[in-house]
Amino acid sequence: MTMQRTGAAAGMPPMVDCAEAERRLQGFVDRELTPVEVAEVQMHLDSCANCRGRFRFEEHFRRIVRRRDETETAPAGLRERIRRLLGY
After folding, report:
1. Residue ranges of domains in the chain
2. What is the per-residue pLDDT across 28-59, written as a single tens digit (0 to 9) for each?
3. What is this structure's pTM?
4. Contact indicator for 83, 53 with CB cutoff of 8 Å
5. Is residue 77 within 8 Å of 85, Cβ to Cβ?
């Protein structure tokens, strides 16, 4: 389902379509959008199950990557070589 941009009514941000929501998805997930852009994307996600599913997938994927990053450590030998190179 593709939603078209519509004019802002009663102070509401304009609706973005699926293509625009897709372009802004990474910035939305990374919290890099302006408050107005966040409101526009959020309004679209609230009304579009397809895009909402993509957002949930991205959010879930990033949580997994972050957790994995927190649990993985470099081998002791590599850490020691880096410390020596850095003068620690």
Report:
1. 18-86
2. 999 999 999 999 999 999 999 999 999 999 99
3. 0.62
4. no
5. no
